[in-house]
């Protein structure tokens, strides 16, 4: 993985979504470089799909769907959760995620979810159905 390129990509389009070297990172590239990415933070018994990002000029062109389809094996490898921006709920639902109650999140994610929501982020907890 070319981590510095991924870090630069996030810094340019989603500065608060800092990738970490211990995450599993999938990317989509064009001749111009990285144009989409998604990260999977690993926990002992589950994973968190986090920081999915598509360059602004390519949004609403199904690139997010294609990225999720491409990493389907990763999503299904271990129980997978997602804290999705509410407006992206249909995107994740189309790829097999289901809205769940916050109290159904693993304990390690509940505090993170509450913190994100308290900071003003409009997030919806989701779990992949095959997980």
Keywords:
131 residues; globular; 31% strand; acyltransferase; Acyl_CoA_acyltransferase; six-stranded mixed β-sheet; alpha+beta
Oligomer: single chain
Calculate Rg over CA atoms. 14 Å
Give the helix proportion (percent range): 25-40%
The total beta strand count reads 6
Low-confidence stretches: none
The main sheet orders its strands as 1-2-3-4-6-5
Class, according to the CATH hierarchy? Alpha Beta
- Quickly give the CATH architecture: 3-Layer(aba) Sandwich
- Biggest pleated-sheet summary: 6 strands, mixed
Tally of separate domains: 1
User: Mean pLDDT, rounded to whole units?
Assistant: 92
Keywords: Acyltransferase, Transferase
Domain N-acetyltransferase: 22-98
Protein name: GNAT family N-acetyltransferase
Enzyme class: transferase
Describe the protein.
The chain is an alpha+beta fold and 131 residues long. It has one domain (3-128): Gcn5-related N-acetyltransferase (GNAT) (Aminopeptidase). The protein has five helices and six strands; from the N terminus they run H-E-E-E-H-H-E-H-E-H-E. A six-stranded mixed sheet has the order 1-2-3-4-6-5, with helices on both faces. A hairpin with a 2-residue loop joins strand 1 (24-30) and strand 2 (33-42). The longest helix has 12 residues, at 107-118. It is globular, with a radius of gyration of 14 Å. It starts with a helix and ends with a strand. 27% of the residues are buried. The model has no long low-confidence stretch (mean pLDDT 92).
